[in-house]
Structure formats: structure tokens, C-alpha cells
Amino acid sequence: MTAVAATPPAPQKPQNQQARSWIVRVTSKPWWPWAKRIAVLGFLAFVITLLVIQARAIDWSEVMTTLRAYPLKVLLLGAVLAATSHLIYSTFDLVGRHYTGHTLPAPTVMAIAFVSYAFNLNLGTIVGALGMRVRLYSRLGLEPATIARIVGSSMLTNWLGYFLLAGLAFLIWPLALPPTWHLGTGALRAVGGVLVLIAVAYLLLCAFSKRREWTVRGQDIALPALRVAWVQLALSCANWAVMGATMYVLLLGKVSYPMALGVLLIGAVAGLLSRVPAGLGVLEAVFIAVLSPPLGNSALIAAVLCYRAMYYWAPLAIAAALYLLMEVNAKKLAATQTGSAAGMNEIRGTDGLA
Questions:
Q1: What is the average pLDDT across 215-241?
Q2: How far apart are CA 174 and CA 314, in angstroms?
Q3: Whose CB has fewer CB within 10 Å in the chain, the N or C terminal residue?
């Protein structure tokens, strides 16, 4: 009898490779973009429905009475603290200026950062942090790669301080969160420890890493020097700390500063994850969930509305006017910048011949 050779079994794809190929097949379908949009809209509708239900339970006449009773000194101090925070944030792009080596004037860079931040708070990252920076920096002659590095540097600066400050707050002053959140004190401390480790790891990487550059999706990413990392951390921590102080003042000192700061830090992330513009209603819901009791709903809503007026809406009005002014003067600023750059190049050439 002739032996029949056994057919070797077909090689099996690893499970992770099969999963990736399935994801590619699904996301390449013509209906996928529509399904994704419907899912996002459905989630937003769900969040808005919850907020509307919660809003109906609030005594708005009592909220207005509480707002009218705010002392003028408290409102002025809150406004000064809010303005200070925006001023600190506007320096974040100066770190990007140092990081990329572009030569736009510092006041112009700070103005762009302020406009971007105000639009980002109210209309989201795509419009503010990204869209406004791309629009204004490109009008002033910066290359897309440079703008991308500025945006990345500023976003990293912002969240670096958040990680450290929130981590320390959750470790040292853990909040008593609602039972429905299923996050106890021990778990919150663990989250805080992880956040602190992330911030420390960044500093250690900047201090000791032998490899200083990476390429991610065609973009070159370079680690800054340790002193720059410390500046990033200090600026960001100062910004978040002043934001917490603003909320503490508007709560009239009825809760401790670490508690006001901790709730604000949780609310900031909750608003970001909700994808609701300006986290409208989300920040209010977080403050009510964590601080009611000891504070009443009306007092909390009034404080958050004051915070929004000072930190979101007033800066947006100023930023909109400043944006229009910068658009009108963009060509003049770009010409000035071009002339300045040419002059610097001429000086460098003269120095080289000397």
C-alpha cells in the first residue's frame, strides 16, 4: 500500500492578530463612520437626559437668591484668582517656544495660549487647544511640525501637574465618594499613588534617559532637559492649585481647601470624559454628589455657576475679541516675524564671516 502523506494543519493565527484583523474589517466598512457618530450622539443624549433629570430637582429660585447674596469681596477675589490661573496657563506655550526654538514674541505666544485655552474650556479640545493654535500659529508662519510640538508640549505640561497634584490630594486627603461610584478610600489612594508615580517617572526619564528622541507617527519627539521638566511641573501645579483656590473662595470656606481642590480635579476629568461641551452640568453634578451634604444643592450650584462665569464665560468673551484682533493683524505680525527672522539670520552670517 502506498503511504499517504498527512496534510499538515493550517497555521493558526494568534488570537491578538485575529482580533486586530476583525477590527480592521469592521472599521473599514462604509457604515462604520455613521455607527461611530450615532454611538457618540447616543451617549451625549444619555448624559444630557441625566443632567436634565437632575436639574429639575434643583430649586432655581433659591439658587438665584444665593447668587445675589454673594459678598462683593468674594466675587472680586474669585475673579482675581481666575485671571491669575489664565495668566499662568498662557505661559505654557512659552515652554513650547523654548522647546521648539521658534522666535515669535513672548506676548504673542501668551495671547495665543490664552485664546486657545478659553475656547478649549468652552468648546472642547478640537476647537480650542488644537484648532485655535493651528490657525493662529500657522497664520504667523510656523510649520505644522512645530505647531504639533507646541500643542503636545502644552498638553503635557497641563496634565503633568494634574497627575502630581491630584495624586498627592488623593493620597493625603482622600475624599469620601458616593457609594454608587464603587471607589473607596483605599482605591482612591491607589489611584493617587499611580498618578504621582507617572509624574515622577517623567522627571526621572528627563534626568537619566540616554535616549532623548523618538519618532511617533512621523513626528520627532525629544525629551526636554530636567530643568525644563521642573518648570513644566511647577507651572502646571500652580495653575491647578489656583483653580482649586478659586473654587474654595466661591464655596465661602465652608469646606476645606484640599476637599474643594479634590472635587474640582475629579470634576475636570469627568467633564473631559463626558464629551459635553465645557462639561456643562457635569461639574455641577460632581460637586453635588460629593459635597451634598454637608452643603445644600443650591449653594453648590451657585458656587459652580459663579466659577463658570469667572473661569469660562468671561475669558471666552475676552478671547473672542482678542482672536478677531489677531486675525485682523495676522499679516502685519507675520511680516514683522519674517523680517525679524531674516535679521537674525543676517547677523549669524556676519558673525560667521568675522
A1: 87
A2: 32
A3: N
Q: Which residues contact 160 (CB under 8 A, 6 or more apart)?
A: 199, 202, 229, 232, 233, 236
Decide if 41 is inside a domain.
no
Q: Would the pTM count as exceeding 0.70?
A: yes
Number of domains in the chain: 1
Q: Is 31 within the bounds of a domain? A: no
Phi, psi of 13 (to 5 degrees): -75, 140
Q: Helix, strand, or coil here: 270?
A: helix
Tens digit of each residue's pLDDT (9 = 90 or more) over 147-188 = 999 999 999 999 999 999 999 999 999 888 888 888 888 889
326 occurs within a structural domain = yes
CA angle in degrees (0–180, nearest 5) for 252-253-254: 90
Q: Is residue 159 part of a domain?
A: yes
Per the structure, the complete domain to which residue 197 belongs is given by: 63-335
By C-alpha distance, which of 314, 291, 280 is closest to 55?
280
